[in-house]
Specification:
single chain; 319 residues; alpha/beta; 8-stranded mixed sheet; 14 helices; 8 strands; 13% strand; globular
Length: 319
């Protein structure tokens, strides 16, 4: 297969590396002013990996889109709409191409899911999402994991599973795009809360955090028309180990550093996803106590320990 990857950061470079390793011809796109792309061009790798020889680098977006029928997009969630508008403005019709969004998040200004943004901007439903647990640092060391692919069209999810499967990653295909996208995005917010508990020396409360996090987010998914049980699958609960406990987790580390007044200079998607979740909470009327606590701490200057301890002093509701 000929596959293009748009985005050359940690995960974009991994997807290019992975697709090259399993035998596909890969084009990896990055912007000319991207330090990530400049490093890949000069050294052939980054802090995480060395690209195989069958990965071609390009700074030409039009070339990257036209050269492949399968396009992986792996950029920050808040950058997706701008990238899609750029593709549209170049008069590139992608309706016949198979697009895979390898990213987790919600648009903070609207609360919209990433597949919705894609469908609106490029007038196509030929889109899948690839999410699930794992860290680049482990995967490039041949430590296996399981992930999930879901799509607007079920046959597309099944086809993409066949294209990307390997002994390193076992794929499941999902049928609930709403629940899988919300779950994948929201686990980063729970990851920030977990990191804050670590920073406050309250790691033992992560079990309660996990139980309550799945409960509140399952209610949100159901209110949006998804299957509440999707929250207990690979996109959310299945990703808790990697996000709430691992030292590789950017969101967990961000939360820990935040409450300890340390600088954190990497992308933690949960900081913007929580803004979107507050919009969805208002729209649906579903209470999201954990997300609200994280939002209050990050954006309302609330005291972290007080906000987090209040979560576990709330009355238990039997459902």
């Amino acid at each position: 297969m000929k596959i293009s990857v748009l985005g050359c950061g940690r995960w974009g470079s991994f997807h290019a590396w992975y697709c090259g390793k399993i035998g596909h011809d890969v084009t990896l796109y990055g912007r000319a002013n991207s330090k990530n792309m400049q490093r890949l061009e000069s050294t052939g790798g980054n802090d995480y990996l060395k690209l195989p020889e069958n990965v071609e680098l390009t700074k030409d977006l039009e070339y990257a889109v036209h050269t492949s029928n399968i396009i992986i997009i792996s950029v920050g969630a808040q950058s997706l709409r701008g990238l899609l508008q750029e593709i549209r403005d170049l008069y590139m019709d992608v309706r016949e191409k198979k697009i895979v969004l390898c990213m987790k998040g919600l648009e903070k200004t609207t609360g919209k899911r990433l597949s919705t943004i894609f469908a609106e901007t490029l007038e196509s439903q030929n889109v899948a999402v690839w999410v699930g647990p794992g860290h680049v640092q482990d995967l490039v060391q041949s430590i296996p994991n399981c992930m999930v692919i879901a799509a607007m069209k079920e046959n597309l999810a099944e086809e993409m599973v066949e294209v990307f499967k390997s002994p390193l990653i076992r794929f499941y295909y999902g049928t609930d795009l709403i629940g899988i996208e919300i779950g994948a995005a929201a686990k980063n917010v729970v990851g920030i809360a977990a990191g804050m508990l670590d920073g406050l020396n309250c790691t033992s409360l992560k079990g309660a955090l996990m139980a309550r996090g799945t409960a509140e987010l399952s209610r949100l998914v159901e209110s949006l028309g998804g299957d509440r049980m999707s929250i207990y699958g690979l996109s959310h609960l299945g990703d808790y180990e990697a996000t709430l406990f691992s030292n590789h987790s950017h969101n967990r580390k961000f939360g820990e550093d935040f409450v300890q007044n340390k600088q954190f200079d990497k992308l933690a998607e949960g900081t913007e996803t929580v803004v979107a979740l507050m919009k969805l909470s208002k729209i649906t009327g579903v209470e999201l106590p954990i997300c609200r606590a994280v939002y209050n701490i990050l954006y309302e200057n609330a005291e972290p320990e007080e906000q987090l301890m209040n979560l576990f002093m709330r009355s238990i509701k039997i459902e």
